[in-house]
Every structure is written in structure tokens, then in C-alpha cells.
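From the methods appendix. Each design record in this collection lists the discretized structure first, followed by the designed amino acid sequence. Records were kept in a plain field format so they could be parsed without special tools. The example shown here is representative of the layout used throughout.

RECORD:
C-ALPHA CELLS (268 positions):
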């Protein structure tokens, strides 16, 4: 049983890394896959804690750029504005996530049918937005005004419903408000860092009394798998999105959500 659980953790970690930064909802995919695999994690902590692997993937791929921004902070107003913009965008999710943490973990995380419905609805929205002839006013994430950052932050809060997708919500919000596809995806990458780090720290604090040493190999396996897969995705996603848009991910969501509903009705 332990070996099977490790295998499940490996599969779910790879799924987390594959889906975290594309607009298909990594949490929704992991919860659905875990449901059908019979995977049960202590306090549903595994599903949140392995996101640290994806955070480190972003830090790894963007390390040079992050160091450049950090070095520019004392003398470059645009660098300071960008960092402040990321923090402003993070704020709504930090406040609402902390207040609604119990409801999210105990109710929303335990409703596979809701996840499937949100995957389908999100796919339809993404498909519609991808086909819109939107005029872009911003082609660099560093140039987003603070008001736009705050609005994107409120869009991110929609992702507290599993199946919605954090990256999907932020990308769609940015596109609707004048960002081009590449800058919208890139801002979503940067916003993921404080958002996922905050979720990791808060969930670890909430579950510290119920997690045990027996949980560590499972979480570590998922963490490493998520890191490796996320590095691959982050390296190639922006170029793909710039050339092809988001239609592939919209259809992905529609197919997974529909198959998930069918499986739930067939097998429970």
C-alpha cells in the first residue's frame, strides 16, 4: 500500500507541475485524480504543499531576472512599481484566502462535481476570450499600472473555487483589461510566487499539528515531481502562448471536465 501511495504521489506531483502554470486548474486536476485514485492526504495538505515545487521552478527559471529586478530596486522606479504591483495583486487573495480557508478546504475541495463544472465553464470562457479581437495596450508585465494589478488580483480570487484555475483567472482578467497574451501569462507567473508561497506557509501552519513524519515521503515525492515538470512547462509556455493562444487549454478543460462528470455519474 505504501509503494502504491508513493506512485500516486509521483503521478500527482507530475500533474501539479504540468498544470500549475497553464490555465487548466492544477488543484482541480489533482483533486479529481486523487478522487479516482482513492488518494487521501492528511488535511488535504499534500495538494497545497507540493506547490512549493512549482514555486521553486519559477525561481529557478527566472532567477537571473529576479536578481536583476532586486538589484534595480534602489534606483529604478519601474522595478519598484512592478514589485509593489505584484504585492498589490497578491493582497485580495491573501485576505479572502485566510478568511475562507476552512470553507475552501472542507467544502470546495470535497466537491468533485463542482470541479468538473468549473473546468467546463472556464474552458468556455477561455475559448471565447481567445477568439475575441481584443486590443492590447500593455505588452510588458513590468509596465502594468498599479490599478490593473489590483484588478488582476481580484480576478485571482475566483481561483479559490477549485477547477477555476489561478493562472486562467489572472490571464483572462489581464487580457480583458488590455494586456497582450505573453505579458498576461508572464504577470501570472510572477504573481504565482507570493500567492503560492503564502498558501504553502498558511496551510503548513494550519496543518502542523496533524502532519507526521509518515507524511514527509509522500509530500517530498510530489514536491520533486512538481518541480521537475514545472521547470519544463515554464521554459516553453510563453513562446507557445505567444504563437498559438489559449485554445488548446480551453479544449483541454472541456474534455477533462466532461470526462470527469461522466466518470462521476458512472462510478461515483
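DESIGN:
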Amino acid at each position: 500500500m505504501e509503494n502504491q501511495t508513493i506512485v500516486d504521489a509521483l503521478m500527482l506531483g507530475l500533474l501539479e507541475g504540468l498544470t500549475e502554470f497553464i490555465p487548466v486548474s492544477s488543484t482541480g486536476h489533482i483533486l479529481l485524480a486523487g478522487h479516482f485514485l482513492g488518494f487521501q492526504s492528511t488535511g488535504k495538505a499534500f495538494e497545497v504543499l507540493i506547490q512549493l515545487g512549482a514555486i521553486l521552478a519559477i525561481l529557478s527559471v527566472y532567477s537571473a531576472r529576479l536578481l536583476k529586478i532586486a538589484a534595480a530596486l534602489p534606483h529604478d522606479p519601474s522595478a519598484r512599481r512592478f514589485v509593489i504591483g505584484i504585492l498589490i495583486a497578491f493582497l485580495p487573495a491573501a485576505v479572502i484566502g485566510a478568511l475562507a480557508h476552512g470553507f475552501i478546504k472542507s467544502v470546495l475541495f470535497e466537491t468533485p462535481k463542482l470541479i468538473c463544472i468549473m473546468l467546463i465553464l472556464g474552458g468556455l470562457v477561455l475559448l471565447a476570450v481567445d477568439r475575441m479581437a481584443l486590443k492590447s495596450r500593455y505588452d510588458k508585465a513590468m509596465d502594468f499600472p498599479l490599478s490593473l494589478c489590483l484588478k488582476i488580483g481580484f480576478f485571482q480570487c475566483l481561483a479559490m473555487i477549485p477547477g477555476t484555475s489561478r493562472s486562467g483567472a489572472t490571464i483572462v482578467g489581464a487580457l480583458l483589461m488590455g494586456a497582450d497574451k505573453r505579458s498576461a501569462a508572464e504577470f501570472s507567473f510572477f504573481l504565482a510566487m507570493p500567492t503560492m508561497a503564502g498558501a504553502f506557509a498558511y496551510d503548513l501552519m494550519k496543518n502542523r499539528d496533524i502532519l507526521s513524519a509518515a507524511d514527509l515521503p509522500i509530500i517530498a515525492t510530489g514536491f520533486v515531481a512538481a518541480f521537475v515538470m514545472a521547470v519544463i512547462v515554464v521554459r516553453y509556455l510563453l513562446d507557445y502562448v505567444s504563437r498559438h493562444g489559449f485554445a488548446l487549454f480551453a479544449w483541454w478543460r472541456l474534455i477533462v471536465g466532461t470526462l470527469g462528470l461522466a466518470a462521476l455519474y458512472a462510478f461515483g
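APPENDIX NOTE: The two ends are 22 Å apart (CA to CA).
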